[in-house]
Structure formats: structure tokens, C-alpha cells
Design brief:
This protein is mainly α. The protein has a domain of about 140 residues. Helix content is about 45%, strand content about 5%. It contains 17 helices and 10 strands. A two-stranded parallel sheet has the order 1-4. It is a lipid-anchor; GPI-anchor. One of its GO terms (cellular component) is plasma membrane.
Length: about 500
């Protein structure tokens, strides 16, 4: 009887040495690694919007709007015919093709921006204002585009996640030592903490945790997977990983987010030293095994990592790659949110240009000086911009030349009286149609001489009927009208001087 009891005890001791852990003893740490693998193989959840392209679209619409309200001198140029001298210089060199495209679209009149067709606008104060706004807006949008940030991409996240799963190369190595280190079981910690190479890859650690010498370990999966769970060479280890990966509980709709990766890292740290046994207390061990060496063979069911240094992260390379991937995701999220705000600003600016364009569709009645100064066309009835003339010979009515002007750019300026007379001449009969009459003696207010009714109809244009004046000169231009026109002329002359030459050229 005693002999039978002794044999039974010896058999129990022998079996306990051969079977380190029972079925599912490593189910929890295995599931933790599966959850991490699930996140690491998921598609990075990032905003892939190309904000630079989106802003370019807004910029292009602003260019079309700008062309539609550009001055006639620019719009009427031939963009198709080559001009060697002109086309070789900036801004023509960089913009000619874009300008030609914009002009063609404006002339076709079918292009829409927010549902509004872009067509050519007639000369007016509103058109001049719209052109100035479009010019400044185009420059502002270009500045916004230069502030876009794109230091990291989704592929940078994927690269780090692949390195976490498979090691330094980011690909499963079935023969070398970038995914598995099988010699002497060092990949699992077979030589102790100091020599341990555990953590080289997530694949490596999963096989270490679940393999055994005969390949029939059931500690992770609850039942043996034939005899496929071996860690004796890189090829067998790769096979074991594929089998274990297939057994992992997966969620196919999971996205790789920074939050998910940080949670995965936290869950791994929480699974370390899970048994609370004596050897695990002094060693950084994942799994059921309670041994100072883990090799995936004679000493299975555990992964022994290098000792953690106080105040420093765990010495687990694949964990570092996960952390880097999470940081990249956060960077991308921050940059794309920044870029989204820039796009919103660009769209707001483009909408402001559209508003000024709409104003140019139904302009308010122009004053004499505004029409005189702002119209740049080939129409012979339209006076030139006086400030552009630098010689007395070119400074012709309605401009006037001042030899004593200290500013050379102001020697030729608008003569408000001449401008008014020229404008009212174009008022035609009763001020309704623009027609030229016979000579300066019959121009403007003076052409109505002593006709009080006709003179009063031009009161809005500065004409006044003076009963005390000599016969034939009772209808004349008032002093108040002259002063008003002169002030407006000076203001608009200055505005156009600032806009020349760039104000005439759309971006």
C-alpha cells in the first residue's frame, strides 16, 4: 500500500514538471495580445482630406471672379497670341495659362460659384471695388495655403504599427532574426533578464507565451492546435504566429486611433506579473509561468522582459512603436484640424469676393469723377487716368497739367470742370443718352444756354440756372458741384495710383 502511494506521488510530480500550465491558464494575457494585434492591424483613423487642393479650388474661383471684374485694359488683352517680351516676364510667365482659362470661362458665362454664374461685368465703381477685393483676397488665400501643416501621413502610422507587429523591417521574417530570435530561447528570455530579447515584436511575444517543446500547448487557446505551436526556429515560429492569430477574437470594424493604442498599451502593462507569484515579483513577466527563464520550450507559458529601469519606459521595442504610432495619430489629428480651420477661412474670404461681385452686377449710379477715373477701356469717350501721364503733351482734357507740382506723379491730374462738361455732353437730349455734340461751346451745362427746363433736368449732374448771368450762359456748372467733383477726383486718383500696376492684374 505504501509503495502504491509513493508511485502515485512520483507520477504526479513527473506530470507537474511536464505540464507547466493547464488549458486557458494564459487565456487572459493571450487575449490582451490579441486585442493589441487587433488595433495594430486596423486601418488608421485619420482625416485624409487634401486641404491644399480644397484651398486651391477656392483660389481658382477667386481668380475667375477677379477676371470677371478686371479692368477692360487687362481683360481685352489677347492671351492666346504669344508675346515673347511680355510672356517671358512675371507675372505673365506664371499666370498666363490660368488667366486665359479664366477669361474663357467668364466669356462662356456657364461657370457657377455657389450657384451664381460668373459673367463679365460692366465698368462701375462697384466693379473696381470688387477687383481690388479679389486681388487682396487672392493674396490672403495664398498666405493661408502656405500655413497648411502636413508633417505626418496615415502611412507613417501604418509603418510604425507594422514594426510593432513584425519587428524592425515591418514584415514577417520567416528565416532571419528581425521577427523572432529562437537561438537559446533568447527571444522569450531564456538567458535571464539581462540577455532577454523579448519584446522584439508582438508576434515573437505571442508565440513565446503560447508555445512548448511538443507544440501542443493549450494554455492560450484552451485546446492544442495540432502540434503547431513551436518556437524552435523562425519558420516554425512564423507558422505558430499565424495559427495563434487565427484563433484571436477579432473585431473587423475596429479603427486604429490614438485612444485605442493608448488603451492597448495600458492593458498590456496591467497584464504583467499577473499571477503574483514570488518569481514574478522580482521579474517583468507576462504569462502564467513562474520562472526566472522563459524559452517557449522546456520553460513555456511566459515571456521574460529586461528589467525596467526606475523612471523609464519598459524596455519593450514593439510597445515603443505602438506609442510612436499613437503620437503620430495625435499629430495628424491636430494638423488636420488646423488645416480645416484654414480652409474655412479661405472659403469665407472667397464668399466675400462673391458678395462684391454680386454688388457689381447692379452698380449704383456713378458720379462723374468715378466714371472718368475708373473706366479703363478703348472707348474714345472715356477719359484716361490722368496720373499715368508724365509729359505735358500726353496730359490732355479732361486732365490738366501743373508745372509747379512738387510731386512728379501729380503734375497731370483731373480737371473736374472739364470732366463734368465732358460727362454731361454724353447725357444726350434731356440727359437720357450719351451722344457727342458739335464742339466745346455747346458741351455740358453750357449747351443748354438759357433753356431753364433742360438745365434743371441736369441739376443732379451739377448744372444750375443763373438768372443774373449773361444771355446764352445762364445754364452753368455750379461752384459746389466743381468742389465736390474735385474732392472725389483727388480721392479716386490716389486710389487708382495705389492700384497701378498690380491692381489691373488678377492673380
Amino acid at each position: 500500500m505504501r509503495q502504491a502511494i509513493l508511485v502515485s506521488a512520483l507520477a504526479t510530480l513527473y506530470l507537474s514538471k511536464q505540464v507547466k500550465g493547464a488549458a486557458n491558464d494564459n487565456a487572459r494575457p493571450y487575449n490582451v495580445l490579441c486585442a493589441i494585434l487587433n488595433v495594430a492591424t486596423a486601418t488608421p483613423d485619420v482625416d485624409t482630406t487634401d486641404y491644399s487642393a480644397k484651398i486651391s479650388e477656392e483660389l481658382e474661383m477667386v481668380r475667375h471672379l477677379n477676371m470677371s471684374v478686371s479692368d477692360d485694359g487687362f481683360f481685352n488683352q489677347n492671351f492666346k497670341t504669344p508675346n515673347t517680351d511680355r510672356d517671358a516676364k512675371e507675372p505673365w510667365k506664371s499666370n498666363k495659362a490660368a488667366w486665359e482659362k479664366s477669361k474663357n470661362l467668364v466669356e462662356a458665362g456657364e461657370t457657377k460659384f455657389h450657384g451664381i454664374k460668373i459673367t463679365r461685368k460692366l465698368a462701375s465703381h462697384e466693379r473696381t471695388v470688387a477687383a481690388a477685393i479679389a486681388n487682396e483676397t487672392a493674396s490672403a488665400i495664398r498666405q493661408l495655403q502656405m500655413k497648411l501643416k502636413s508633417t505626418k501621413k496615415a502611412q507613417d502610422v501604418t509603418a510604425e504599427l507594422n514594426k510593432a507587429i513584425y519587428g524592425a523591417t515591418g514584415a514577417l521574417d520567416k528565416s532571419g532574426e528581425t521577427t523572432f530570435v529562437t537561438g537559446s530561447g533568447a527571444g522569450c528570455g531564456g538567458g535571464g533578464q539581462g540577455a532577454s530579447k523579448a519584446g522584439i515584436s508582438l508576434a515573437n511575444d505571442m508565440v513565446c507565451l503560447c508555445s512548448s517543446s511538443n507544440g501542443q500547448n493549450a494554455a492560450c487557446t484552451g485546446a492544442a492546435i495540432n502540434s503547431d505551436l513551436k518556437y524552435d526556429n523562425a519558420g516554425n515560429a512564423a507558422t505558430a504566429f499565424q495559427k495563434l492569430k487565427e484563433k484571436c477574437p477579432m473585431h473587423i470594424k475596429l479603427k486604429a486611433t490614438a485612444a485605442a493604442l493608448w488603451a492597448a498599451i495600458t492593458s498590456f502593462i496591467g497584464a504583467l506579473k499577473g499571477t503574483g507569484k514570488a518569481t514574478q515579483a522580482d521579474n517583468t513577466i507576462l504569462g502564467y509561468g513562474n520562472a526566472a527563464t522563459c524559452d517557449g520550450g522546456a520553460n513555456p507559458d511566459c515571456v521574460l522582459y529586461k528589467a525596467a529601469e526606475p523612471g523609464k519606459p519598459l524596455n519593450v521595442p514593439w510597445l515603443t512603436h505602438l506609442s510612436t504610432a499613437a503620437e503620430i495619430l495625435e499629430t495628424i489629428d491636430n494638423e488636420q484640424e488646423h488645416n480645416k480651420q484654414l480652409l474655412n477661412s479661405a472659403r469665407a474670404l472667397a464668399t466675400a469676393v462673391l458678395s462684391s461681385y454680386i454688388q457689381a452686377e447692379k452698380p449704383r449710379p456713378d458720379t462723374v469723377s468715378e466714371r472718368t477715373i475708373n473706366e479703363r477701356s478703348t472707348n474714345p469717350s472715356t477719359p484716361p487716368i490722368c496720373a499715368t501721364h508724365t509729359s505735358k503733351e500726353d496730359c490732355k482734357p479732361p486732365c490738366k497739367w501743373a508745372d509747379n507740382a512738387t510731386d512728379k506723379d501729380k503734375k497731370c491730374s483731373l480737371d473736374p470742370a472739364k470732366a463734368a462738361e465732358q460727362q454731361t455732353t454724353q447725357g444726350g437730349k434731356d440727359g437720357d443718352q450719351a451722344t457727342a455734340k458739335e464742339g466745346t461751346a455747346s458741351t455740358g451745362c453750357a449747351r443748354h444756354k438759357d433753356n431753364k427746363d433742360k438745365c434743371n433736368k441736369l441739376e443732379s449732374q451739377g448744372c444750375v440756372f443763373d438768372l443774373k448771368a449773361f444771355d446764352g450762359k445762364k445754364c452753368t456748372f455750379s461752384e459746389k458741384g466743381k468742389q465736390t467733383v474735385e474732392k472725389e477726383a483727388e480721392k479716386l486718383e490716389e486710389m487708382m495710383r495705389k492700384q497701378t500696376p498690380h491692381g489691373a492684374i488678377p492673380f
